[in-house]
């Protein structure tokens, strides 16, 4: 089995296409973290005192 200098790039690209929901899962996790931050800010801003 011969390997050309760029064959690892072709193999990596084909493996990336077979991963499936990797990008979707990454986007869902980012949206969840941002959403939790916004929800915490929204809930906790009512505790600010204006003395």
DSSP helical segment count: 2
Radius of gyration: 22 Å
Give the low-confidence spans: none
Q: How much strand content do the residues show? A: under 5%
Structure, described:
This protein is mainly α and 51 residues long. Helices cover 67% and strands 0% of the residues. The protein has a domain at 22-51. It is built from two helices and no strands. The radius of gyration is 22 Å and the shape is rod-shaped. The termini are far apart. The chain crosses the membrane at residues 24-44. Keywords: Membrane, Transmembrane, Transmembrane helix.
Ordered list of secondary-structure elements with their pairings:
Layout: H1 7-17, H2 22-44
Gist?
By secondary structure, the protein is mainly α.
